[in-house]
Structure formats: structure tokens, C-alpha cells
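[job 4417] fold queue: 2 targets
>>> target A
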Amino acid sequence: MPKSIAAQISPARSRAVAARVGLVLGLAIAVCFLTGLISHWIQHPPAGFYWPARPVWLYRFTQGTHVISGVIAIALLPVKLWSVFPRLFARPLLGNPLHMLERGSIAILMGAIIFELATGLLNTAQWYPWRFFFTTTHYAMAYVAIGAVAVHLAVKLPVIRAALSRPLSEREPEQDGSRSRKEPKSPAARGISRRNLLGIAGGGAVVGGLAVAGQAVPFLRWVSVLAARTGDGPQGVPVNRAAVEAGVERAAKDPGYRLRVTVGGKAREFGIEELRRMTQTGADLPIACVEGWSAGVHWSGVRLRDLLGAVGEYRGGSVRFGSLEQGGLYRESVLPHPHVVDDATLVALRLNGEELSLDHGYPCRLIAPNRPGVLQTKWLSRIEELA
């Protein structure tokens, strides 16, 4: 880089800062990617994928971590971009094939990561100002982002290793050709120091994480000023989809309501009073949603395996649940065998000692351990064992 340009660049805009911020940013993106894969695979399981019913808090942890790590990445990304911005336009713009590969990977990397972080953040607020389907698009772009990260690391690894091995105060070779001299206290060195910039970046990442962590970690709610959900909602528990939005109010309140259960070729219908007369079981299970929020709840109702046993012999297959809701992507869900037989899986009738409100799934809903809230089907109309 020409000396006239280098002299105008703040010493904080350096490979030393870019490498250190990039290291933490990369870890945040990796955690976000892995926890996002888990969430997607639970909802759309590929062949051979297994997700346990226990521990009951595992999905609450992984999805809370997914959103927190994404917000931390949002806080670090501008610092990373600022530290390398002048060098993105250094001559030559293209150069040899390796240089072109580096520039191309950076362009794809920045585009994919900005897209992922921006759309993910808007998803936590359930605001979708676009026409594409968020879930599949976000999932596909995650692979583009992580692939670009891998290419970028492969190309830049020698530079990154060299930058991490040098003290922060050492002047970089590309600035004046020296190897080990300290940064001079000259007009070119005015402005924020590298150490202070890293401190601000780290502090911003911590503050950003805490600002949303309370929606998954109850004792942090008082500091989570940016959390989309903080515990408010009907019966003190948040909801994503209300009964009015689902269009189920009339059907749910119908005195002739029946829950149809099919097991082993046999079918039986249950009214709400019949369900209430059956043995009631309680379970402390979190309701945890893909937006990162969760809440601890005490549920009570009929244990699923007892309800299936009252109809026929359960043969060990997955079980499909259908809602009174007539539309929507999640009016049905399929529960795998480990969750079907778990003691805590309920057809829930009550929440924290109260009858379910309409918004929480009255007259009854599925609640199973270690599952996303979007798969905890509300306003149940049918339960069917699959062959």
C-alpha cells in the first residue's frame, strides 16, 4: 500500500485488530450456524437425524444460544468491516487468481453474513418485510455463509496467524516495511488505539448479548432491553400465534368439540369433560420458540401414552397431531417415538394451575419435552399413530 495512503489510515485499522475481532466473530458465527442447523433439523428431520426427549431444557439452551450468538456477531461485524475497509480497495483490485479468490470470498462472505444476521434479527421480532419464505432461505444462505468463511480462512490463514502472533502495539510491515517497531506517537497514530477499540468491541458484544439473553434466561430479563419476548402474554406466558389469528375461536368453544384419536387401526373420540376425568399428570416443561424466547411452565393434562392406550395398542411409530386451525404451515406436527413414550409428554389441559386460555391452545394442546414451540400443536382436533 502506498505510504501516502497508509499515513492516512488509523493504526487501529489493522490486521492485528481485524484478526482478533475476526476470531471471536468467527466463533460466534460457527455457534450460530451449528445451533441453527439443530433447530432446522428438528423441524425438518433428515434421514438418520435423532433428537432426544431429554434433557427437557436442551432446545431452550441451543435456540437461546443461537439468537444470542447471532446478536453478538451483529455487534462485532461493523468493527471487523471498519478495521479492514480501506484495504478492500487497495490496488490491484483483482490481480492474480489467489487474490481474486480472496476478494470474491470476501464479497460473498459479507453479503451472506449480513443477509443472515439481518433477516435472523427481524425474525426474532416476527417482522417479515420480504416475499421469500424465511425458514428455507435462511437455512440455504447459512451454507453459503459458512462456505465463504471456510474459503476466506483457507486463503487468509497465513496472514491471520502472523497478525495474531504479533503484539498489538507493533507496526505492521505493510505500513512502513518494518517488522518490530512500536507505533510512533505521531499525527498518523492519532485516534483510538487498537487496544481501546478491541475493548469497545468486546464490551459492545457483551452488551448486545445481554440485551436479548433475558428472553431465554429469566434472571437476565431486567437488563434485556432489546428482547422480543420478556414473559408477557396470556396467563403470563408469551404466544406467537393467537386464537384470533388462527381463526379457531368458534371451533375451540364449540360444546360439541371432540378430539379424535386413532391407534392401531382403532379410533375413538373424546370430549373435553372425558379428558378431564382421565388421570391427570403434571410436568414442568419450558415452552421454547425459534425466535429465541422461552418460558418455564407447569403443565397438566393427560399423559399421551395413557391416551393412546385408552384407544388401542401403540405399536411404537411416530404420532401425528392436527389442529382445529385450517390453514398455516404448522397446523400439523409429527412426534417421534422417544417423545411419544416420555412421561412428560402431555395432551395439556391446564397451564400453571389454570385452564388453558384460547391463545394457549384451549381446549387442549400438545406439550412434549425438548421441542420447538412451533411443533407443540395447539387447539388439537386429531391424534393419529403413523404406520
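>>> target B
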Amino acid sequence: MDKKSVKEIKEAIENLELSRYMEYIDLLRSDDRKSVQNLALKLAKKLDKIRAEDERLEKINIYENEGYNKGYLYIGGIDEAGRGPLAGPVVASIVVFGKDTKIEGIDDSKKLSESKREELFEIIKEKALDYGIGIVNNEEIDRINILNATYLAMQKAINSLEKTPDYLLVDAAHIPGIDIDQNSIIKGDSKSISIAAASIIAKVTRDNIMYQYDRMYPEYGFKSHKGYGTKEHYEAIDKNGIIPIHRKSFLKKYFK
């Protein structure tokens, strides 16, 4: 190793197989050059990060594995996006993975950047055995209320699957009116890989809908706030009024 330049060593460890990390860390640490020893430190930190992610990915399969151990064969995770906004639909998604599926970086959609969500959106669709999306618009939300609209979106997502799951993992909810065993998990979008995946599918789908609305109604700023009750959004309503995609039941003060 001492015959190689620092540049050559950097290039070597960039494409290093994980199985050889410890070997190289030991070699680099024994080098007299401080810069090479610093590379050993960076490689060790990278290995720690990889191991931590592997451990996290094991943990977020726990609820799925519990289901398999109980005899369930086709497990779907469900989450929604858009319960709180003043405008636009509520969107639910369900994702079914094969046993022991791992996707690096997958997590609660709220913890991820938009670019990471979009990247994972495509990976999830590729790796899923099946996935479904349910959308309930603002008019239906006003008619049946947001809670029932959320349940309806979840039911629609389930019904859009090619095969009905025999077990559901649901983020902090129990869906009424369906004859499928369910497990309601508080903060499930950070504890279950299939719920995390569903949160990403639902969030990206809803955001794309709101981008379309932004092009239709640019004066409301939907691109930035996605319909939530920000200062910018309320100022746009005060200036321009209510539009067809607003949830009137969320904006009752404007109808007195």
C-alpha cells in the first residue's frame, strides 16, 4: 500500500467491495502518511454507516416478519397523504413486497427530500409484488368528512390490487368495512418497510397532482405548499377567493 499514491488509494477504495472494507481499513491505518490514515477513518465511518443502515432495514421488516410467522402470505402496508391540506385530494397507497425485501434509504416520506422520494418511488414500483393507489377528491371530502374520505381512499387502493392481501399493516389507523386482518402501527411509516413505501407512493402521487393544479391556478402557489394552510395560501385565498379544488369544510369562515 505504501507504494501507491494517495490518489491511487482513493480510486481503489471508491470501488471497493464491502467484504474488503476491514482489510483496507487495517492496511490504511498502518500507513505512515497522515492523509492515508485519514482515508482509513473515512472508510471506517462509511462502514459504520452501511452497518447502521443494514440494521435499520432489518428492524423495519419486523412487522412483516411477524405476519409471515403467523401464517400470512401476502402482506400489504398502507399509508395516506393529504389529510390536512385546505385543497386537493387525499391519496392512499398500499404496497406489497416479497419476504425480506430491502431497499436502501427507504423511510417515512416526511423524512426524505423530494428528490429522494422520487428516486425511491421508481424503485418501489419495480421491487413491489403489487401496489395500489386510491384518490378521493375535495368534493367527496366535503361530503363524507376527511376521516371517512381517508378510509375510502385506502379501500380504493386495496381494491386496485391484482390480488387481495391476507394481512394489512396500517399507519395509525384501522380501516372499517374490509374483511382483512389488520395491524394498526403508530408511526408505522418509520417502522415498517411496506408502510414506508406506501407513504412515499402516496406522497409523490399527491404532490404530482398538486403540481398540475399549480399550473392551472398559479396564483395560489400550490407548487410550494401543496395545498396546506400556509400564510401564502391564506393570502392567496383572501385575494383570489375559493376555487373548485378547495375543501369547503376546511374553510367554513369564508362561507359565513
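[job 4417] complete. Note on B: The CA atoms of residues 136 and 152 lie 7 Å apart.
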